[in-house]
Amino acid sequence: MNPPTIKDVAKAANVSVATVSRVLHNLTGFSDKTKQKVLQAVEELGYQPNAIARGLINKRTQTIGVLFPDVSSNFSSDILHGVEDAAHEKGFSVIVCNTAEDGKRTMKYLQVLREKQIDGIVFTSEFLKDEYYEALNDMRVPVVLVNTQTHKHMIPYVKVDDRQAAYQATDYLIRNGHREIAMISGTLTDPIAGTPRVEGYKQALADHGIEVDEDRIAYGNFGYESGRQAMHKLLAEAPSFTAVFAASDEMAVGAMGAAFEKGLKIPDDLSIIGYDDLNISRMIYPPLTTVHQPLADMGRLATEKLIALIENTSQVSSSIVSHYIVERQTVRKLP
Amino acid sequence: MNPPTIKDVAKAANVSVATVSRVLHNLTGFSDKTKQKVLQAVEELGYQPNAIARGLINKRTQTIGVLFPDVSSNFSSDILHGVEDAAHEKGFSVIVCNTAEDGKRTMKYLQVLREKQIDGIVFTSEFLKDEYYEALNDMRVPVVLVNTQTHKHMIPYVKVDDRQAAYQATDYLIRNGHREIAMISGTLTDPIAGTPRVEGYKQALADHGIEVDEDRIAYGNFGYESGRQAMHKLLAEAPSFTAVFAASDEMAVGAMGAAFEKGLKIPDDLSIIGYDDLNISRMIYPPLTTVHQPLADMGRLATEKLIALIENTSQVSSSIVSHYIVERQTVRKLP
DNA sequence: ATGAAAGCGCTAACAA
DNA sequence: TTGTTAGCGCTTTCAT
């Protein structure tokens, strides 16, 4: 009735449980004949090891947790894909945690993960509050950050250089002959994806001797609708501009929608460059020129780091991964 | 050094482990004074229960597994969102499994989930092969299917009526005055999302006395690029048509791209209706009219069913959830 | 080469 | 109301 245990196998093979364990783990100390007996018993009974019992004694569950502010976003799911892939490769399972808006469930989840004795955590796209840090620290498991970082604590992270990426996006526009460049920024209070991108934009303008005009900067929350509204605002209130740098692809797409609504043609009447390189960017028309962030790779890299830490084969180390501009069809070269 | 166990708490509170367990579970049989002592010890030591040990004895891990052919697709991540949400609400964690192209990793994952003693499985968007069924059956845990189904076995599923939804999409086009209607189908070998949608399309035409022309049907694999190609093929080879029904939003978006490339205006020159209602559909321009599938709700419902089954508070039951057409701006009313 | 036995941290009879 | 104890299924000394 109940699934067979190692005891049942031992009995069937006429050996002790210790021996069964030995052959199952390919240790030493058993004859070839015993091995056959055991393997046959395993086969006949359809025995499957119980990872829970194993975990209780090994103090390892071969499971990691990954936290996202919004699992269903395109952004998160790309990262998840990389995480899952790397984890699976190394023999780990991954528990997904959706921390929901403003990390409402973060603490709760940390608690759950702790009780479930997970071996490590990938923490993504959310600012690491002190409260979280304390909890994480209490758990005594390795943590790797993706798309966020902390200077306060020694926690490895994997992200792109947001400031530099924004700089280059703006610079790209300038090299294409644009001088009147607007920006649609994300929330300024976001210390990772907010401020640095605006700074990069400003710096690029400054380095080219272009005056920064705050009226050409509109703010959104990285989402589609906010991008659409920001663009409408810009179109209505800002000094004229020939190009826009949006701090996220979703906002860029929203901005394009707004432009279309006003009868503008892209890139003929207005150029636009995004940030992220989500799938949607190559699917819309015209395909969006944008800054590519290797999200899946970042998830993968973070997970590999995490597992190395778990198996303590490595020291804590962070990575700035490289971004690049994907030239598609939303930026026009000005004469 | 090591995290405190129930024993440590017992010692600190000067009671037995049984008593600690009792107050922690709010059972009966302890005085208020003991309760205070225990709670205080818990507090002081920062005790956290070990779910692994608990699972070993309860034979319940409060964890479910969910399998996707492609976690990073928009489609999967919406379902995942619903699953995660419902699971979290009921006190379950979810392990995500990406079965990869053609279910390469499905069997492997089923094995892992089994060893990890998960309490149930949500199986999505993939045809349930006999091999999978056998494995699932061996595991003796409840399973709920999402977006797929099986007639051969008694496994509850949650999905929309694909045939009817396709019928209605086509009918919608007809009611808007279209009579020359092409279709971009998914893979015909897909018994869930392939054939039924084509049948629904044909039936709708037939019911309106419109002859079905096989040359107006092109085939893709549900993905963007295949939709783009299918549309190019249709435009080049098919008899003229004024509207297209695409069996997935991604293909619809690809088809729109192809149309734009040919200088066609949507919906002025060509109407198009999609299927799925992914986020992208409302973000592109013009926003795509499509058949809404409540993916997150489906994930949620399936998970609730699953958990009910786990806690055997219910009998096996399937649900056909309702779809509806979201009218946006890609279908033009013909005079 | 093999087995006996002691736990891992917890729950749940069963006693007291 | 409280404690003792026997496991859950497994790994790992330590004997033999």
Automatic annotation (TrEMBL), chains A, B:
Pfam families: LacI, Peripla_BP_1
Domain HTH lacI-type: 4-58
Gene3D superfamilies linked to this entry: 3.40.50.2300, lambda repressor-like DNA-binding domains
The entry's keywords: DNA-binding, Transcription, Transcription regulation
This protein's record includes keyword Lipid biosynthesis: no
Superkingdom of the source species: Bacteria
Cited SMART domains: HTH_LACI
A GO MF term: transcription cis-regulatory region binding
SUPFAM superfamilies, sorted: lambda repressor-like DNA-binding domains (SSF47413), Periplasmic binding protein-like I (SSF53822)
InterPro entries listed in its UniProt record: HTH_LacI, Lambda_DNA-bd_dom_sf, Peripla_BP/Lac1_sug-bd_dom, Peripla_BP_I
PANTHER family linked to this entry: HTH-TYPE TRANSCRIPTIONAL REGULATOR GALS, LACI-RELATED TRANSCRIPTIONAL REPRESSOR
UniProt-recorded name of the protein: LacI family transcriptional regulator
Organism listed in the record: Paenibacillus azoreducens
Lineage of the organism: Bacteria, Bacillati, Bacillota, Bacilli, Bacillales
